[in-house]
Design goal:
336 residues; Helicase, Ruva Protein, domain 3; 14 helices; five-stranded parallel sheet; single chain; alpha/beta
């Protein structure tokens, strides 16, 4: 588009910015408006416009605010930088690396895998990698059918829901547990084909326990090359779990009494010690906090006078009763 700038004539019925003339010439004010619009379009196409940058910074801030997960955060920043630099190289007509962004998340339950996947989806939307950035979370039962042909259709239905975003498959290794005749193999084949057919607007994240996911990748020679990004989610330390608990309580406008804080620490040390590797991590903390809040309510309901402090504080008694209830629930689960 060629823009020729002219000076507008001084006329009382014209604004100072002028108008487009009959010959297609443009006044200075209009030229600036057009140029600014073109630049914004160019920046948006590259994922670098001001609004996008602000949203990206906000999303990365949410990632930074997550407790622990330092190695995970570092890798997400690396992925973001890699994508942006490859785009810049493409703009300069330089050789760029293929941007295959399918991922494998390895870690125990409650280590933040789903939370991070949601953040990645939103981040990739603002970077114009994905058109929607939503997360569809499924497991084996959502993909595998009961008869020939059923699995392919179920898997395609979930894929269709995921286009423009992320399909997050939890306990993905279960798709390969039944051997060659199991319908899970059919689901894997459909997923692999979709990764090729919709590579520009679909990201798959396979999640599960570390050892099981390592074995799963070996079952299909094509999986390893299609999932170049592997992220390990470590278990939280007791200190980090206490921070998560306090954050959960603060958001709900509760606090722990000093004795309750010590009681919670003892519970977490016991539940995350040797032999309890699959204790639930942040999921365990959430269950304890929710049960402690209910125990507080039962303790207060028949009290004649309830102060604001009573409504806010979780006591040692509440935590201990929550622990006992949780242990009974675990016992029933493993006895059945």
């Amino acid at each position: 588009m060629e823009i020729k700038i002219i000076r507008p004539r001084a006329r009382s019925d014209e604004s100072k910015t002028g108008t487009i003339t009959e010959k297609g010439e443009v006044t200075p004010g209009k030229a600036l408006t057009i140029f600014t619009g073109l630049e914004k379009k160019k920046e948006k196409a590259c994922g670098m416009d001001g609004d996008n940058n602000e949203k990206i910074s906000e999303i990365l801030g949410e990632l930074d605010d997550l407790i622990g997960l330092q190695t995970v955060k570092k890798l997400i920043y690396e992925i973001r930088a890699f994508v942006e630099i490859q785009r810049r190289r493409q703009q300069e007509k330089l050789i760029s690396e293929p941007m295959t962004l399918h991922m494998i998340f390895k870690g125990n339950p409650g280590t933040g895998k789903t939370t991070v996947a949601r953040i990645i989806g939103r981040l990739f939307k603002e970077m114009n990698i994905l058109s929607k950035g939503h997360l569809v979370e499924v497991e084996r039962a959502d993909l595998v059918g009961e008869y020939i042909g059923h699995t392919a259709q179920k898997t395609r239905d979930q894929l269709k829901k995921s286009f423009g975003g992320i399909l997050f498959i939890d306990e993905a290794y279960s798709l390969a547990r039944g051997g060659e005749k199991d319908f899970g193999k059919e689901a894997i084949d459909v997923l692999v084909k979709a990764m090729e057919d919709h590579k520009d607007n679909l990201i798959l994240i396979l999640a599960g326990y570390k050892a099981e996911m390592n074995d799963f990748i070996k079952t299909n020679p094509g999986l390893k090359s299609r999932f170049p990004i592997h992220i390990d989610f470590p278990d939280y330390s007791v200190r980090e779990l206490l921070e998560i608990a306090k954050l959960m309580l603060t958001k709900r406008q509760y606090t722990l009494s000093p004795a309750a804080g010590e009681a919670l620490k003892r519970v977490l040390e016991l539940q995350t010690g040797k032999g309890n590797e699959h204790s639930g991590n942040a999921r365990l903390v959430r269950n304890l906090i929710e049960k402690a809040i209910r125990k507080q309510a039962v303790r207060l309901i028949n009290k004649k006078e309830i102060t604001r402090e009573d409504l806010i504080q979780i006591t040692e008694e509440d935590v201990e009763e929550a622990r006992e209830q949780l242990l009974r629930a675990y016992y029933r689960q493993y006895q059945l």
